[in-house]
Amino acid sequence: MLMALATRTDRRPSTIRTLWDSSVGKKTVMAVTGLIMLGYLVAHMAGNLKIFFGPGDFNGYAHWLRTMGEPVLHYEWALWIVRFVLLAAVILHAVSAAQLSRRDIKARPVKYVHKRPRASYATRTMRWGGIILALFIVWHILDLTTGTVHAGDFQHGQAYQNVVGTFSTWYGNTIYIVAMVALGLHIQHGFWSAAQTLGAGSRNRDRLLKTVANVLALVLTLGFIAVPVAVMTGLVS
Amino acid sequence: MKLTLRVWRQKNADEPGAMSTYQVDDISQDMSFLEMLDTLNEELTLKGEDPVAFDHDCREGICGACSLVINGDAHGPERTTTCQLHMRSFSDGDTIDIEPWRASAFPVIKDLVVDRTAFDRVIQSGGYISAPTGTAPEAHATPVPKPDADYAFENAECIGCGACVAACPNGSAMLFTAAKVSHLNVLPQGAPERESRVLDMVATMDAEGFGGCTLAGECATACPKGIPLFSITNMNKEWLRATRKSGKR
Ligand code: HEM
Ligand code: SF4
Ligand code: FES
């Protein structure tokens, strides 16, 4: 079939520009960065469970995180690469979230007089949950990576003792558990949502994607919470 | 049946509006929702008051002109258009809240009538195919696989009513735009503009001030034509494909 098409003379902007300027593109940035962080969190949660094997294993593991990649890489290089990728991911994710949220709120300035419940809890709490997670990430790094706001006496290289210190305070436990519940909810909607954003969802695959989202949310939340619960019950001390 | 109606009244685009309360008696269960409003308007006219302005045209569920958010639901409690909603879905003595579509891309013109021309501009930017005019082409010249034809038809059912935008917490037009993109992009007739269509329609949708998609799913629940939420997934896929392809040129 031969068709006469108008010849386009305007050039399209670069791929990066197209992505960043479009609501669909920015959502793609959120999906990709969200999945990067999710992948990291699965590894992080599994690593944390080494605490149940005692201080020797756990501190040894913390030390290995610094030597991994050697001798190809120098001491701590792999760790710094991971940190850099995560920092980029969290910044891109948060900036996109803020910009998209502002756009969404502007697009619906007048609320309906007749209210009725909308969407699921996990869906409605993505923004507040995200803010809780952002605050948590800052506190968590200042607490257990730099030791700046640590409750007891923080010692580099003594990860086990530092963790026990944090979860020996009521506020340490509270902040952590609230954040991990927020994380579970965020992932429950986020994982399925990212699949739709990236065009991977379909009618046939929906049940599978929802199941994986639920399992990931549950395993991560429970896996992370296992550590403060173990300290509180004296299983880890 | 006797009903209490709380209706959004607004003189024009510039003046603020408010809910006004009206009583209507003698409403039959067999009336459509719009006929019920006609009854109210006859009474208002007889009293010398300004009748309630609302959009309607075909009154048979195919044109997409009727709107109304009824008790918080776009097109009311049944999954159909307001013109096809019947008063048997309500009970004697009910209070019914009637509001216009709410979205900054759909400003209120008067009472329950909103300006939906933003949809027209989204369509103009890519919701067409380029085909020579003249006699109709031979029907068998371009074979279309049955699953593709079904998929196109499912999406072609969109009547452009805007209920999806009204129901969306972000005032997003993703379901509408996705229905158009999915309908045309799967067909061979739509192939020449496959990339420019999705890129331009999404860009116009953004420029018109519609919100983004947070996959809350309210649109697909409200849609009277059952456009599936996965049409949005498909449009995302088409958009990413087009972005990748046009980036290489
Ligand atoms: C800085 C903290 C964070 C903020 C402010 C934030 C905020 C948000 C917001 C507002 C959304 C969009 C929700 C919607 O579509 O309604 C979202 C989606 C998402 N978030 Fe986060 N989030 C944060 C951290 C995380 C973390 C740590 C993960 C890792 C598991 C994550 C994974 C995701 C995923 C996978 C999505 C779905 C993306 C999509 O719908 O395509 N987020 N986030
Ligand atoms: S997608 Fe459904 S709700 Fe949206 S405009 Fe089309 S028919 Fe109306
Ligand atoms: S008036 Fe045409 S669809 Fe309702």
From TrEMBL, chain B:
Pfam families in the record: Fer2_3, Fer4_7
Cofactor(s) recorded in Swiss-Prot or TrEMBL: [3Fe-4S] cluster; [2Fe-2S] cluster
Domain (4Fe-4S ferredoxin-type) ranges: 149-179
Name the record gives this protein: Succinate dehydrogenase
PROSITE patterns: 2FE2S_FER_1, 2FE2S_FER_2, 4FE4S_FER_1, 4FE4S_FER_2
Boundaries of every 2Fe-2S ferredoxin-type domain copy: 1-102
Transmembrane stretches, start-end: none
NCBIfam families named among the record's database cross-references: PRK07570.1 (NF005746)
Annotated Gene3D superfamilies: 3.10.20.30, Alpha-helical ferredoxin (1.10.1060.10)
Domain of life: Bacteria
GO biological process: aerobic respiration; respiratory electron transport chain
UniProt keywords, alphabetically: Iron, Iron-sulfur, Metal-binding
